[in-house]
Design goal:
Elements: H1 11-31, E1 37-40, E2 45-48, H2 52-71, H3 77-95, H4 102-123, H5 132-149, H6 156-159, H7 161-180, H8 190-196, H9 201-225
Antiparallel strand pairs: 1-2
Helix pairs in contact: 1-2, 2-5, 2-7, 3-4, 3-5, 3-9
């Protein structure tokens, strides 16, 4: 490299970039008529959040991108779960015929799923091509963006449930070490805990894929049929 270093951006620089992109997205979103209410039609919830919705978007985008980044520790794990998530959001968007543009979002999700599946051929165990921060951060942010544009923000916690669990395992581990000087997991994120228990990489990835698939089916019950 030009500076004789391959370390790339620091954590602070990455976080700053994510926050900046999230703020730009919120500005463009509101300018183009995006709603700022949190809507859960099944539970008859419609809360107008105003500018607070910008903070909510910031949390979703930054949290989503970093959650996928943390999950990207085993061959094919993050990419496979991302593909499953985009299929779920594609089906949710495609099923909505009353809102203009939703089916275009659905097509985008299906196209992106196809791209990820092509990548997965070389990223699954044993991986020949790696995603890195550029891919994982982008996929996480895109997944959160689709959730926002389809007004299914809450569903992201279910569709991206495995990503949430991975992130929580890191938070719990850090909190426990700092406060109690003890580890809850042998290693975090939690997929490394299973590795330390002696599980094979392939078995861990398949288990997490199945978990992600089941969670997406549960989300589809709410997102499409309820």
């Amino acid at each position: 490299t030009r500076r004789s270093s391959d370390l790339g951006l620091t954590e602070i620089q990455k976080l700053f970039g994510q926050v900046l992109i999230a703020l730009l997205f919120f500005f463009m979103y509101v300018k183009n008529g995006g709603q700022t209410a949190l809507i859960v039609s099944t539970l008859h919830i419609n809360i107008e959040m105003g500018w607070v919705y910008g903070l909510f978007i910031l949390f979703l985008l930054v949290g989503g991108s970093n959650a996928v980044n943390l999950t990207d520790g085993l061959d094919g794990l993050a990419s496979g779960l991302s593909a499953i998530g985009f299929v779920a959001y594609g089906l949710i968007a495609w099923s909505c015929t009353t809102v203009a543009g939703y089916q275009d979002i659905g097509i985008f999700c299906f196209i992106l799923t196809g791209c990820i599946m092509g990548f997965l051929v070389y990223n699954s165990y044993p991986a020949k091509v790696f995603m890195g921060d550029t891919g994982s951060l982008s996929l996480g942010a895109t997944l959160a963006t689709v959730a926002i544009l389809t007004n299914h923000e809450i569903s992201l916690a279910v569709i991206g449930g495995v990503f949430v669990i991975e992130t929580l395992s890191v938070i719990i581990q850090i909190f426990s070490v700092v406060v109690f000087k003890k580890r809850v997991f042998l290693m975090s994120p939690i997929h490394h805990h299973f590795e330390r228990l002696g599980w094979s990489e392939g078995d861990i990835v398949k288990l997490f894929w199945i978990g992600g698939f089941i969670l997406c089916l549960l989300a589809l019950i709410y997102g499409v049929w309820l």
